[in-house]
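Protein details
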Amino acid sequence: MTQDSSFTSRSPNDQGYTGTNSNGGWSSFMNNNNIGGSDSGTPTRTFSWTITFNNYGRQTFDTAVDDSGSVSISGYGSQFVMGGYGGQTSKTTSSYIPPGTYTLSATSVNSGSGPWGIALDWTGFVPPPPAVITSFTASPEIQTSGTDGIPNYNTTLSWNITNATTAILTTDGGSGDIWNGVALSLPNGSLPINNLPQSSGNGASRTYTITATNVAGNTVTDSITVDVYNDRNPSNSWTTSFTNLEPNTSYAKKLGTLSGIDMITKVSCPTSGVFFANGANGSYANPQYFSNGQNVYMKMTTLPFNTNISGVTGDFGKTNTKTVSVTVGGLSAFNVSYVTRKPRISEDFDYDGAVGTYPFEDIDLISNTPSQYGLSQTLNMDDIEIDMEIKGDDPNLQIKINNGSWQNIREI
């Protein structure tokens, strides 16, 4: 076995041949390095050497042969044709050969009688070209989750790599990331990523790294960081009840101000007649889309007064509440209520009584029991806000409303 740096064709060969030759027609390189001889005819000869290459690469030799011949290396086949005996020709193996011990074989063909010879001298190696990552991109980057209020976790990586035998993708998501350690296609390709991290109001990021390796095992890396904005879960609280409102009236009320999100966020309600905007006088819609820091206003119409007065004592009745379900981004739905004020259900009378008069001009033509009625002055009833029954403690009491006819009322 001979180390590459000291190898010539006169190093010990596996056949044990030590013969040399000299010839005036040969170059000095041929004369000084050959194994050879002289004969008649056109024999073909093959000699082999055990050689150790210490570096990965295409191995280079100075060569000469009389008359013609070639060199092969075990495991890699024929590598080059040697140069002519009148000179010193540099040849390089066609294969990149890794470090190790090999059998180098040289064959010479003598084209006629006379001298023959093989001259070789190892002169170095040409290392393989390094792997080059010519491009590595992500699209989209920045990942903004669009304008539809739906968080996205997707991007597509694309690459182009030259002079590599392998390429591996790794991520800072750790060993649990399904893309960590994935082998990439060469020389180019793309990979849809669907597991970008969840951001938390201030964005998040995920870094992807390609490690490309050339035939010699030398590596090169390139990285790209994808910025992610997909948090639609606000961190603020909401005002969910609005009271003392007028009945049958449209109100725009502020629910709160979005905070803690970093993407467009949808606000919606399944009930018709409910709308949202980012200002009291804004453009209302359902659903509506908001950005971080924007106010969320809701507009809807209150119910009419509550006419149920069962169990009520005092001057005022019951409120009437309209409740709807609102969803903001990824939060669980919550209820928002519009509550009317209580209607006035009793009248405060303030008048001077008028008694001793007849309700009709011709009352004296009518026989009544009792024979006389007391007539009050006109009463304006403007305190009550829902229809209320009028009752009295005298069974003979009658009323007329506006220009209607006199009518009995129910006794208390």
Remarks:
- Confidence is low (pLDDT under 50) at residues 354-368.
- The first strand starts at residue 2 and ends at 3.
- The chain has four domains: 2-126, 132-228, 241-340, 348-412.
